[in-house]
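Can't paste images in this forum, so I'm doing it all in text. The chain is below; anyone willing to post the predicted structure tokens underneath?
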Amino acid sequence: MYLDAHAHCEQVLAEIGQELRLKYANGQSEHGGQLWRKTGLLAHAIEEAHDLEVYLVTLRQQIPDVARRIANRLSIKEQAAPSWQWVARELEAWLLERGEG
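Text version of the structure:
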């Protein structure tokens, strides 16, 4: 399913909003809200940001390989192989629909 930009934005905000509310409530009950009192919090947060960068770059690098593998499997079954670029676009769209992209 392809959404226009506004509908997609609303969908993303709704999903993120639900997740953030739950995460926030859990964090408040577990840790409280006085971040300046949390030893090492800033260093840990920066570490987490670096991890996220690595995950995103790695995923971007791996999508074409996964798409090539899918295209190859489809060509075995259907005689005519779709391009790996088409498969990559379809894979990204599918991941976004599932909330994993």
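The chain has a mean pLDDT of 82. The helical segments are 5-31, 41-78, 84-97.
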